Alpha-1,3-glucosyltransferase (Chilo suppressalis), 199 residues
Amino acid sequence: MTRRSDPDKFSVTKDALVPGVFFALLVRWCVAAYPYSGYKKPPMYGDYEAQRHWQEITVHTPAAKWYHNTSQNDLEYWGLDYPPLTAYHSLLMGLVADWLDPESVRLFASRGYESESHKMFMRWTVFLSDLYFYITAVLCICIDAERVKQKDVKLVFKRTDLSSILILLLVNSVLQEELKTIHAFTQKTMTVEQWKAQS
């Protein structure tokens, strides 16, 4: 008769958590370096252009007009289609972009803007946002787990807790690429044939 392992008795120490989170962030960075949909393909240019354009719109139009078709905000060209919290995040990143490289968010004139320095800026904004929001949440969970654990136990997470955290970050990276393809298809930056060829 074989002995079955009990998943609740398998735990991960803080020493294993930190390298695991760094590995997940490394995978996230590698996925972010992958080419994006619509690269140098006018008129819509793909998902990178959508993110850049949202920065342009949020920097140059009042918040009350972000979701309305106006002379400054053509909703047919990558109109904001995410909730306001995302728009405010785009505004914050857009203000930094405007400070570093004003041409990248110049109203109307920046359509299709794809400089290498701005692509690196965009990748860093995603990475640092993940680092700030995601890792902060992980650390809060660690602190809370440390606070409520028994004094003689040196383990912070059970296997399921750690795997859930790491899988969430890794799956988010992989799904991001899939969603870019689907988004490019729905925004008509890819033809049906191009979309099928990628499937």
Summary: The chain has a mean pLDDT of 77. DSSP finds six helices and two strands in the chain.
